[in-house]
Amino acid sequence: DxxxxxxxxxxxxxxxxxxxxxxxLPARKIIGDRGGPASMKENVCxxxxxxxxxxxxxxxxxxxxxxxxxxxxxxxxxKFVCPECKSGVHTCFVCKKRSExxxxxxxxVCGKFYHGECIANYAPTAPVNRSFRCSxxxxxxxxxxxxxxxxISKGRLVRCVRCPVAYHATxxxxxxxxxxxxxxxxxxxxxxxxxxxxxxHEHVNVRGSLLCCESCPAAxxxxxxxxxxxxxxWYCNDCKAGKKPHYKDILxxxxxxxxxxxxxxxx
Length: 267
Fold this sequence. Notes:
Keywords: Chromosome, Metal-binding, Methyltransferase, Nucleus, Repeat, S-adenosyl-L-methionine, Transferase, Zinc, Zinc-finger. The protein is an alpha+beta fold. The chain is 17% helix and 16% strand. The protein has 7 helices and 16 strands. β3 and β4 (98-99) form a beta hairpin.
Protein backbone atom coordinates (compact mmCIF):
# COMPACT_ATOMS: atom_id res chain seq x y z
CA ASP A 1 0.00 0.00 0.00
CA UNK A 2 1.48 3.36 -1.09
CA UNK A 3 0.22 5.29 1.91
CA UNK A 4 1.66 2.76 4.34
CA UNK A 5 4.93 2.83 2.41
CA UNK A 6 5.14 6.60 2.72
CA UNK A 7 4.42 6.53 6.46
CA UNK A 8 7.04 3.79 7.03
CA UNK A 9 9.60 5.70 4.95
CA UNK A 10 8.74 8.82 6.92
CA UNK A 11 9.41 7.31 10.36
CA UNK A 12 12.64 5.55 9.37
CA UNK A 13 13.92 8.70 7.62
CA UNK A 14 13.97 10.64 10.89
CA UNK A 15 16.57 8.29 12.32
CA UNK A 16 18.61 8.41 9.10
CA UNK A 17 18.68 12.22 9.03
CA UNK A 18 19.86 12.45 12.61
CA UNK A 19 22.96 10.54 11.49
CA UNK A 20 23.65 12.82 8.54
CA UNK A 21 27.04 14.53 8.36
CA UNK A 22 26.98 17.71 6.26
CA UNK A 23 30.73 18.19 6.57
CA UNK A 24 31.07 16.14 3.39
CA LEU A 25 29.50 18.12 0.56
CA PRO A 26 29.68 16.86 -3.04
CA ALA A 27 31.76 18.87 -5.50
CA ARG A 28 29.45 18.05 -8.38
CA LYS A 29 25.73 18.36 -9.01
CA ILE A 30 23.72 15.25 -8.18
CA ILE A 31 20.28 14.00 -9.17
CA GLY A 32 17.57 16.23 -7.78
CA ASP A 33 18.54 19.46 -9.49
CA ARG A 34 17.81 18.55 -13.09
CA GLY A 35 16.60 22.06 -13.83
CA GLY A 36 20.21 23.27 -13.69
CA PRO A 37 21.88 25.79 -11.37
CA ALA A 38 20.07 28.71 -13.04
CA SER A 39 16.70 27.32 -11.94
CA MET A 40 17.86 27.40 -8.31
CA LYS A 41 19.18 30.97 -8.41
CA GLU A 42 17.39 33.09 -5.84
CA ASN A 43 15.51 35.98 -7.47
CA VAL A 44 13.46 37.02 -4.45
CA CYS A 45 14.83 38.84 -1.40
CA UNK A 46 14.99 36.54 1.63
CA UNK A 47 13.85 39.38 3.89
CA UNK A 48 10.91 41.05 2.08
CA UNK A 49 10.10 38.28 -0.47
CA UNK A 50 10.06 40.76 -3.37
CA UNK A 51 12.00 40.85 -6.64
CA UNK A 52 14.37 43.60 -7.75
CA UNK A 53 18.10 44.21 -7.84
CA UNK A 54 19.53 41.72 -5.40
CA UNK A 55 22.88 41.16 -3.73
CA UNK A 56 23.83 37.48 -3.72
CA UNK A 57 25.55 35.93 -0.72
CA UNK A 58 28.65 33.96 -1.73
CA UNK A 59 28.60 31.93 1.47
CA UNK A 60 26.87 28.59 2.08
CA UNK A 61 23.29 29.95 2.16
CA UNK A 62 23.27 31.18 -1.49
CA UNK A 63 20.79 33.84 -0.36
CA UNK A 64 19.71 37.05 -2.08
CA UNK A 65 18.97 40.42 -0.49
CA UNK A 66 17.98 43.97 -1.31
CA UNK A 67 20.63 46.36 0.00
CA UNK A 68 18.17 48.28 2.25
CA UNK A 69 16.85 45.01 3.67
CA UNK A 70 20.28 44.27 5.15
CA UNK A 71 21.02 47.92 6.03
CA UNK A 72 23.60 48.54 3.28
CA UNK A 73 23.80 51.81 1.38
CA UNK A 74 25.80 50.32 -1.50
CA UNK A 75 27.04 46.95 -2.66
CA UNK A 76 30.39 45.88 -1.15
CA UNK A 77 33.32 45.94 -3.54
CA UNK A 78 34.59 42.61 -2.27
CA LYS A 79 32.85 39.27 -1.96
CA PHE A 80 29.61 39.57 -0.02
CA VAL A 81 28.93 37.08 2.76
CA CYS A 82 25.74 37.51 4.79
CA PRO A 83 25.82 37.73 8.62
CA GLU A 84 24.61 34.13 9.10
CA CYS A 85 27.29 32.71 6.83
CA LYS A 86 29.91 34.80 8.61
CA SER A 87 28.83 33.50 12.00
CA GLY A 88 28.28 29.92 10.82
CA VAL A 89 24.99 29.77 12.74
CA HIS A 90 22.10 29.34 10.33
CA THR A 91 18.31 29.39 10.46
CA CYS A 92 16.31 26.20 9.95
CA PHE A 93 14.15 26.72 6.85
CA VAL A 94 11.25 24.87 8.53
CA CYS A 95 11.01 26.10 12.13
CA LYS A 96 12.83 29.42 11.49
CA LYS A 97 15.03 29.01 14.59
CA ARG A 98 18.76 29.72 14.46
CA SER A 99 21.02 27.07 15.94
CA GLU A 100 24.38 25.41 15.49
CA UNK A 101 22.97 21.93 14.96
CA UNK A 102 21.27 22.59 11.62
CA UNK A 103 22.53 20.74 8.53
CA UNK A 104 22.77 21.92 4.94
CA UNK A 105 21.04 20.23 2.01
CA UNK A 106 23.65 18.43 -0.07
CA UNK A 107 22.60 20.09 -3.36
CA UNK A 108 25.45 22.63 -3.81
CA VAL A 109 23.22 25.44 -5.17
CA CYS A 110 20.45 24.95 -2.60
CA GLY A 111 21.79 26.66 0.50
CA LYS A 112 18.91 25.65 2.81
CA PHE A 113 19.65 24.50 6.37
CA TYR A 114 17.49 22.26 8.55
CA HIS A 115 17.17 20.45 11.82
CA GLY A 116 17.05 16.74 11.00
CA GLU A 117 13.71 16.28 12.75
CA CYS A 118 12.22 19.29 10.92
CA ILE A 119 13.05 18.28 7.35
CA ALA A 120 12.16 14.64 8.04
CA ASN A 121 8.53 15.75 8.23
CA TYR A 122 8.59 16.44 4.47
CA ALA A 123 8.18 13.13 2.64
CA PRO A 124 10.20 13.93 -0.53
CA THR A 125 13.36 14.43 1.57
CA ALA A 126 15.90 11.71 0.74
CA PRO A 127 18.90 10.62 2.86
CA VAL A 128 21.96 10.30 0.61
CA ASN A 129 25.09 8.70 2.08
CA ARG A 130 25.90 10.79 5.16
CA SER A 131 23.85 13.78 4.04
CA PHE A 132 20.42 14.43 2.51
CA ARG A 133 18.61 16.04 -0.39
CA CYS A 134 15.80 18.26 0.89
CA SER A 135 12.23 18.17 -0.37
CA UNK A 136 12.53 21.44 -2.28
CA UNK A 137 14.15 19.59 -5.20
CA UNK A 138 11.13 17.37 -5.87
CA UNK A 139 7.63 18.15 -7.16
CA UNK A 140 5.35 17.30 -4.24
CA UNK A 141 2.36 16.54 -6.49
CA UNK A 142 4.31 14.07 -8.61
CA UNK A 143 5.90 12.53 -5.52
CA UNK A 144 2.51 11.86 -3.91
CA UNK A 145 1.27 10.25 -7.15
CA UNK A 146 4.39 8.17 -7.78
CA UNK A 147 7.23 8.44 -5.20
CA UNK A 148 9.65 6.27 -7.19
CA UNK A 149 9.21 7.96 -10.57
CA UNK A 150 12.28 9.59 -12.09
CA UNK A 151 10.14 12.52 -13.27
CA ILE A 152 9.56 13.91 -9.76
CA SER A 153 12.83 15.88 -9.87
CA LYS A 154 13.03 16.60 -13.60
CA GLY A 155 11.95 19.81 -15.30
CA ARG A 156 11.51 23.34 -13.97
CA LEU A 157 10.32 23.61 -10.38
CA VAL A 158 8.81 26.55 -8.55
CA ARG A 159 9.73 26.68 -4.87
CA CYS A 160 7.97 28.11 -1.86
CA VAL A 161 10.04 30.83 -0.19
CA ARG A 162 8.70 29.98 3.27
CA CYS A 163 8.90 26.18 3.48
CA PRO A 164 10.57 23.29 1.60
CA VAL A 165 7.73 22.63 -0.85
CA ALA A 166 8.12 22.68 -4.64
CA TYR A 167 5.97 21.94 -7.69
CA HIS A 168 6.46 21.64 -11.42
CA ALA A 169 5.56 25.00 -12.96
CA THR A 170 2.28 23.78 -14.49
CA UNK A 171 -1.39 23.97 -13.48
CA UNK A 172 -1.44 20.17 -13.30
CA UNK A 173 1.12 20.17 -10.46
CA UNK A 174 1.03 23.53 -8.71
CA UNK A 175 -1.34 23.73 -5.76
CA UNK A 176 -4.29 26.04 -6.33
CA UNK A 177 -3.98 29.22 -4.30
CA UNK A 178 -0.21 29.50 -4.70
CA UNK A 179 0.99 33.10 -4.90
CA UNK A 180 3.54 33.52 -7.72
CA UNK A 181 6.41 35.85 -6.76
CA UNK A 182 8.76 35.22 -9.70
CA UNK A 183 9.49 32.62 -12.37
CA UNK A 184 10.77 30.13 -9.80
CA UNK A 185 9.43 31.38 -6.45
CA UNK A 186 5.98 31.08 -4.90
CA UNK A 187 4.21 31.23 -1.54
CA UNK A 188 2.39 27.91 -1.27
CA UNK A 189 -1.15 27.59 0.21
CA UNK A 190 0.28 26.23 3.49
CA UNK A 191 0.82 29.87 4.47
CA UNK A 192 -2.69 31.14 3.77
CA UNK A 193 -3.96 33.16 6.72
CA UNK A 194 -7.75 33.42 7.06
CA UNK A 195 -9.02 36.93 7.75
CA UNK A 196 -11.40 37.38 10.65
CA UNK A 197 -14.90 38.34 9.61
CA UNK A 198 -14.51 37.10 6.03
CA UNK A 199 -17.00 34.23 5.63
CA UNK A 200 -15.17 32.87 2.56
CA HIS A 201 -12.19 32.15 4.82
CA GLU A 202 -14.13 30.23 7.46
CA HIS A 203 -13.48 26.49 7.68
CA VAL A 204 -16.49 24.38 6.62
CA ASN A 205 -17.03 20.67 7.23
CA VAL A 206 -19.95 18.45 6.27
CA ARG A 207 -22.42 17.88 9.07
CA GLY A 208 -23.08 14.79 11.13
CA SER A 209 -21.39 12.67 13.82
CA LEU A 210 -18.25 12.35 11.74
CA LEU A 211 -14.52 12.71 12.12
CA CYS A 212 -13.78 15.89 10.15
CA CYS A 213 -10.43 16.91 8.68
CA GLU A 214 -9.19 20.29 9.90
CA SER A 215 -7.76 21.25 6.49
CA CYS A 216 -10.41 20.16 3.97
CA PRO A 217 -14.13 19.25 3.82
CA ALA A 218 -13.40 15.49 4.06
CA ALA A 219 -15.30 13.63 6.80
CA UNK A 220 -15.34 9.98 7.84
CA UNK A 221 -17.06 7.66 10.28
CA UNK A 222 -14.52 6.60 12.88
CA UNK A 223 -15.58 2.99 12.33
CA UNK A 224 -14.84 3.25 8.60
CA UNK A 225 -11.29 4.39 9.34
CA UNK A 226 -10.90 1.73 12.05
CA UNK A 227 -9.12 4.12 14.41
CA UNK A 228 -9.67 5.45 17.92
CA UNK A 229 -11.27 8.85 18.20
CA UNK A 230 -8.29 11.27 18.20
CA UNK A 231 -7.85 14.03 20.74
CA UNK A 232 -7.53 17.53 19.37
CA UNK A 233 -7.13 18.33 15.66
CA TRP A 234 -7.23 15.54 13.09
CA TYR A 235 -6.06 15.57 9.45
CA CYS A 236 -6.96 13.14 6.66
CA ASN A 237 -4.28 11.12 4.86
CA ASP A 238 -4.27 13.42 1.81
CA CYS A 239 -3.70 16.52 3.94
CA LYS A 240 -1.01 14.80 6.03
CA ALA A 241 0.80 13.86 2.81
CA GLY A 242 0.62 17.47 1.58
CA LYS A 243 -1.84 16.81 -1.26
CA LYS A 244 -3.54 20.03 -2.39
CA PRO A 245 -6.30 20.78 -4.95
CA HIS A 246 -4.95 21.94 -8.30
CA TYR A 247 -6.32 24.29 -10.93
CA LYS A 248 -9.16 22.65 -12.96
CA ASP A 249 -9.68 20.01 -10.25
CA ILE A 250 -13.27 19.12 -9.35
CA LEU A 251 -13.84 19.61 -5.62
CA UNK A 252 -16.52 20.09 -2.98
CA UNK A 253 -17.54 23.65 -2.08
CA UNK A 254 -20.16 25.27 0.13
CA UNK A 255 -21.41 28.80 -0.49
CA UNK A 256 -23.65 30.54 2.00
CA UNK A 257 -26.57 28.37 3.10
CA UNK A 258 -26.52 26.20 -0.01
CA UNK A 259 -25.70 22.51 0.28
CA UNK A 260 -22.26 21.16 -0.58
CA UNK A 261 -21.79 20.82 -4.32
CA UNK A 262 -19.09 20.26 -6.92
CA UNK A 263 -17.11 23.08 -8.48
CA UNK A 264 -13.99 23.55 -10.59
CA UNK A 265 -10.89 25.22 -9.12
CA UNK A 266 -10.02 27.84 -11.76
CA UNK A 267 -9.17 30.88 -9.65
